[in-house]
Every structure is written in C-alpha cells, then in structure tokens.
Amino acid sequence: MTEDYYKRSLEIHKKLHGKIGVINKLDVKDRDDLSIVYTPGVAEPCRVIADDPSRARDLTIKGNSVAVVTDGSAVLGLGNIGPLAALPVMEGKALLFKKYADIDAWPICLDTQDVDSIVETVRLIAPGFGAINLEDIAAPRCFAVEQRLQALAIPVFHDDQDGTAIVTMAALINACRVLGRTLSHLRIVICGAGAAGTAIARLLCEAEIIVVDSKGTISGERTDLSECKRGLLEFTNPKNVSGTLRDAIRDADAFIGVSQGGLLTAEDIMTMNADPIIFAMANPEPEIMPEEALRGGAAIIGTGRSDFPNQINNVLVFPGIFRGALDSGASSITYKMKLAAVHALADMVKNPDRNKIIPDLFDTSVVATVAKAVALHA
After folding, report:
1. What SS3 class is residue 210?
2. Helix or strand or coil: residue 326?
3. Which of 271, 311, 266 is nearest to 288 (CA)?
4. Which 3 state secondary structure label does DSSP give 176?
5. Neighbour-count burial for 296-327, b at 16+ CB within 10 Å, e otherwise
6. The domain 160-378: what is its CATH number?
C-alpha cells in the first residue's frame, strides 16, 4: 500500500506541477478596478500603514499569512535532503493551512543551514507575514532558531516540536482516562531526543520521564551529551537510569516513539508494567507495529499512520494554533496557549476508548475548537 501511495503522489505532483497556487480575491475588469487595486488608489492604504503599521493586519494579506520556513535538514523520515527536495512537503503544509484553517501560507525553502543566516533571513521577510511556521529543521539548530525568532513579535511555532508535543499530550490524557490513570503518576519512556522528543518531554514534565537517543538513555553517566541533551536531565530521569532502550522501558507505563522503525518487539512490551500505552509514531514504519504491540500486551496503541486507529498527527494542531494566534493578534505562542490547545483537543473526545483517544483528522470542528481555546489564552 505504501508503494502505491508513493507512485500516485509522484503522478499527481507531475500532473499539477505542485499543489498550491495564488487566487485573486477580486476580478480586475476595467481601468476603474485597476485604479483601485493598483495605482493611484493603492497609495492610500500605503499611507495609512506608514502612519500606523498595525493597520497592515487588516489592510493586507499580513493578517492571514504564514511563512512555512525550512532548511531541508530533517524532512519527514528522509533526513537532510536539502531545501529543494523539501519543497513538496512545504507545499503540502501550505495546502493544509488553507484547507483546514483558511490561512494563506507560502513555502520558504532556505539554501542555508546556518542558524545566524536562517534567523536573519526570516527577520528580513517577516514584514510580509503574520506568523512563522518552522518546519523540518533539525535539532539542535531548530531550538536556537525558534528561540531567537521570538524577538519578531509575531507568532513563531516549530510544528515538529510543539505541534507533535501538543497532540501527543492530548492523546496521552485520554489514554489515561480510558485506563483510569493519572498523567503525573506515569513512568514514560520517550525514544528520540530530537525536536519532537525534546518538546514532548518538556510538555509532559509532570510525569517521570526517561529520554533515550540512539546511544541509550540520557543519563548523568553519559559523557557525550550535547548541551541540549544535558538540559533534559534537569527534569527527566530522576533515578539516573542508564543503559539501552530495553533497559529503560522495563517497568514503564508508556512508550512514546519519535525515532525510527522496528526498534521494539512484543517481548520488549512484555517487560513493561501491565496494560502499557504505546505511541509508536515513527513514519512510515513505527517503532513497533500495532499487531506486535498487542501481542506484547499493549492496552492502547497510537501511531503516526492513517491506516491504524489513533493517528497522532500534528495536522490536528497547527491549523487551529495559527488560526487562534492570528485572530487574536498574538505576538507569540505561549506555554498557556499550547496547554489550552492540549486540553481543547483532548476534551473533544467525549467518550474515549482504546481505539478513539484523539479526534479524527477530518473532524471539521477541530480547528475552530483549538483556535477558540488558543485565542482565549493569547
């Protein structure tokens, strides 16, 4: 099935020459129309904005526009394929912004992977946009870029980090409701210490968390940790567990995978506490396939794939987050706004069960619900 999607996607991209375009909001039929939309009439909104820059939000596209910015260094499961090869993904993101939230988004693929250059380029183009969506930028570069761009005073959001973290926490809250557990009492293993894994750990910090990278647990015993990974030890691995992924998940209540496929077996799941929660979100191959996790005794399973129940996908998050931020005129996306999105998303599932812990991707009420919650806390 996956191979079929690859083939059909390539055919569609070739036929359409991309997935997005520009549509005029009004027709120019004669000289009178032209004089209004362009010279001389256009001079008046220019003068108004020059006197009051905030008016750009209601007189131009700025109030409903997002730049989807990437350096092509961490594209889907493909890795560092560069900005040109990343363009189809950024087009897809722009398409989803329009479909789900009626936001006009533009792919901005930067031919640099230097933090200073990325930050300066985004700063220079920022006047034309109401918000910035950072996409597929590798860790730890993405952390520095997002932090430094907060100075723009418009919302800046790295969806691979915070979007993934928000939808994961919402799903975990409902998994706990189904199983009669409390989030703060869980022992959670997060496999993957990149952008998504780090953001998930930060958002779930009320629980006991162990983060694992490709070399093992992030523990005080490690001498090869980057500054970002050392920072994780401030709120994770309180018992200083060292060793491999298999060492970490022994007696754990939940596993969250944002790494690579095929890492776990049913036998590994059997070493966890009874009725564990398994979110294996690597794409296209999860860390463990659902049938294998079930064989190991998993109680609730989520993946990043649309062909299994409980698809944990940040498409549920970013349209509403940006819609709420733009509508409220927010200058940033705060921790309170992220938590508001978490609980709005979780509460949409009125009677969660093992196969329904998160809203459906095609639930048309998701964007409005998340946007309203975010705007209230902006």
Report:
1. strand
2. helix
3. 266
4. helix
5. bbbbbbbbbbeebbbbbbbbbbbbbbbbbbbb
6. 3.40.50.720
| Closest alpha carbon to 208 in 228, 227, 226, 181 | 181
Question: What is the predicted pLDDT for the residue at 282?
Answer: 93
- Which are the catalytic amino acids? 38, 93
CA–CA separation, 312 vs 204, rounded Å?
A: 16
Q: Which long-range contacts (CB under 8 A, 24 or more apart) does 215-219 make?
A: 216/242, 216/243, 216/244, 216/245, 216/247, 217/241, 217/242, 217/243, 217/244, 217/245, 217/247, 217/248, 218/193
Indicate if the pLDDT at residue 272 is higher than 90.
Answer: yes
Q: What is the pTM of this model?
A: 0.93
For residue 245, CA distances in Å to 142, 146, 214, 242 come to 25, 29, 9, 9
Phi-psi region of 176 (alpha: psi -120 to 50; beta: other; left: phi over 0): alpha
Pair 91, 111: CB distance under 8 Å: no
Q: Encode pLDDT of 154-199 as tens digits.
A: 999 999 899 999 999 999 999 999 999 999 999 999 999 999 999 9
Name residue 224's amino acid: D
At 22, list the tokens.
């520009």
Cite the residue boundaries of each domain of the chain with CATH code 3.40.50.10380: 2-154
Report the DSSP pairing between strands 208-213 and 216-217.
antiparallel
CATH 3.40.50.720 domain residues, the chain = 160-378
3-state secondary structure of 132: strand
Q: Which CATH number fits domain 2-154: 3.40.630.10, 3.10.20.90, 3.40.50.10380, 3.10.20.30?
A: 3.40.50.10380
- Rounded to an integer, the average pLDDT of 244-264 is 96
Neighbour tally for 165: CB within 10 Å: 27
Q: In what order do the strands lie in the sheet with 104-109?
A: 104-109, 65-70, 131-134, 156-158
pLDDT for res 1: 62
Instruction: Please tell me the distance from the alpha carbon of residue 296 to that of residue 287, in angstroms, as a whole number.
Output: 14
